[in-house]
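Input chain follows. Return structure tokens only.
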Amino acid sequence: MVSSPRRVGVLIGDGIGPEVVPAAMTVADAAAAVEGFGIDWEELPFGAAAIASHDDAVPDATLSALDDLGLWIVGPHDSAAYPVEHRSRTPGAVLRTRYGLFANLRPAKAFPGVPATKPDIDVLIVRENSEGLYADRNMTVGSGEFMPTPDVALAVGLVTRSASERIARVAFEAARDRADSGRPARLTIVHKANVLRLTTGLFRDACREVGKEFPDVEITEQHVDAMAALLVRRPADFDVIVTENLFGDILSDLAGELAGSLGIAGSVNCSTTQVMAQATHGAAPRHRRAGRRESRRHDRVGGHGVPALRAHRGRPGTDRGCRPHGFGGRRHPRGRDRDRRPGRDGIDHRVRRRGGPAGDRHVTRTRTCVNSGWSAGGTGGNYSVLSDQVIVRDRRDVL
């Protein structure tokens, strides 16, 4: 039985956003069809195009529409290229602050078809997203970065016990959810308390306290510099990693590249009721094919493609928005095996940057059926894969 369509917001963004976001929408439509429902996409003004039409990168009309939505996908924004008067606050900061998107979940997993530095990597980095040293999110008024004189620059780092405990609970729940019969729940707390004793020391201590509520989760700790080295040396030793904002941003980019490319590095920013799916990579404006008509705009594919798009299982008002179940959640052995089969049609589906002939449109329309054994009108089963660019992993990863 087909259920009523789910409303999902779409903010196309800048640079390669008009190329990669529609590809993600195609994948989500196909996955939703398998589950027996449709998606009612609601495209909203955003980014440079919104500045041109509304004189604001995130217009009030967009915010009013998002207020009523539980999920939206966001293309990259190139705020550095905006007119000076529109650079004071990035569009991402506006959305994170308004909707309290405190958790940034970033999985990194190697997939077939993408040459990976570390093929055995399969980690979920849980990044605190509302505090830290980032100047666009640690002050209610003003900026956390300032210059008292032209030759002196200062930055304020914010760490609170409540925010640290909140992100720790998300991480411990994710570790418990990702565990299976063959491996225990594992979580690594990453900090730099040997130097930043008060700030990251508070973060570490808050995570330790929350850990007492999860006796079934095996807890380890690493300093952030050691963690970077260990991710490169033996990533299979780690599962869920929880850390503060700046450390999480750096480690997740490293993990994404070790898995093959930032182009497949999935990311969601979430509160307890709302989820914003957003690519880890940037706008990459120099990679966009300028001057292409609408019908051709998906033909170009680089390593900056759409991230793994995993829609949340939560619903507005259900306090499930930031649950890890639908994103970077439990491993499914059959799904992994299915991933590793070659395309049954014998066609080279690799994207151009990886030495193949495929573009976004080709990848999206063919791999949906070829490698996963299902079609948009088919029936369920564990399914996965869409190429180097767009990946839907499992039944639980759809809306």
